[in-house]
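Lecture notes, unit on protein representations.

Consider one protein chain, 123 amino acids long.
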Amino acid sequence: MLKDSRAFSGFSVDDIAAAKEFYAAVLGLEVSEANGMLTLHLAGGRDTIIYPKPDHTPATYTILNFPVADIGAAVDWLASRGVAIEHYPFTDPRGVNRQGGPLIAWFTDPAGNVLSVLELASA
């Protein structure tokens, strides 16, 4: 029954207006708004719903990953847009994890949800 369903993902935020500004103006994504929710129109037809939740608690894991061809260029671009890259004990001075797996850097949206850019050859 669900095999052919066009499933989609969603996550919560505490401020829809701040989320819309961040995802549309800062990240440059196509965003629509209806019924008090946002829809991110991501490449490849991967729409994602953002819904308001007054008692929102940010996820402690990465909720959205953006594959990129060049992690350095992506980190520089995010910084130029005012986005702070998260730094962890295992990341380099620019906030990039280079300890196995794809090169990856994390950042947060205004609600504290964790997002990433990760370098993939196919991006």
